[in-house]
Amino acid sequence: YGAHLLLQGDERDLDLLREVVGNLEAMLGSHPDVAALCLALARHDGQEPPPGLRFATPPMLARGWQLVVEASLERPELVPGDSFAARVAGNLVSGSHWLIWRRTAALAQTLQASPTAGAADAFATAGEPVIANVLKSMRPVVGRSPMPGHLATLAAPMRIDDDMLAALEALAGGRGERAASLIERVAARFPTAPDRQTRNLTPMQQAVLHEVAATTALPAAERIEQVARSLRLPPATLTATLESLLKPGK
């Protein structure tokens, strides 16, 4: 919390911020909230993100996720397209300092959770370092948590292998052009605002169409950035939503 307050202050004590982030790294290791703060520091200093930095799982704090999304507009590979973080982005619930999302069948499938796993087993079986560290930081509250099954769900390793990540990185350079083409096709398919009574659209699809209509005067590449920034979506999630709007039946 202190690090985020330092980032948002008018006069930023960057030396103190670096000390705080360094202490967090020493205590928590590879934790997405700490990685988000490291990312913000790198951007402030005009440096590239740490090599290989990816957010397959989102930060626990909403402000940390906002930092990740802002950086992903310039570096789409930070949030891999088929990751849990990219899927979560379309199901967020606002109004909390915590990053909270609606549980859906698609998210459950992404996590590949065992329905019989218990909270106690979660810490012993977590095979993904990021998730293991998230759970480690949550250990003090597990005993009084009303949702132990949810914690167990978080423990399940991601089914994202090195080949998939390599393919995503290879596509990263051309992703902006692909997204720009998608937004033009969506705009052509939905020249006017759709009627929610007659079209089977999700709230996220509705929101994307609203922003697409609001950016008609902008070039396609700028529209992508504006829509992503307005909805606070990483490019991978926006691209997936645009693709879903082009499926038959919409």
Instruction: Let me know the number of strands.
Output: 2
Strand content: under 5%
Spatial order of strands in the largest sheet: 1-2
Helix content: 55-70%
- What is the residue-mean pLDDT, rounded to a whole number? 74
Oligomerization state of this entry?
single chain
Secondary-structure-derived class: mainly alpha
The biggest beta sheet reads: 2 strands, antiparallel
Approximate shape: globular
Order of SSEs: HHHHHEEHHHHHHHH
N-to-C terminal Cα separation, in Å?
42 Å
Low-pLDDT ranges: 113-128, 138-175
Give me the number of helical elements.
13
User: If you compute it from the alpha carbons, what radius of gyration comes out, rounded to the nearest whole angstrom?
Assistant: 19 Å
Describe this structure in words.
This protein is mostly helical and about 250 residues long. About 60% of the residues lie in helices and about 0% in strands. It has helices at about 1-10, 15-30, 30-45, 60-70, 85-90, 105-110, 120-125, 130-140, 150-155, 160-190, 205-215, 220-230, 235-245; strands at about 90-95, 100. Strands 1-2 form a two-stranded antiparallel sheet. A hairpin with a 6-residue loop joins strand 1 (about 90-95) and strand 2. It is globular and about 50 Å long.
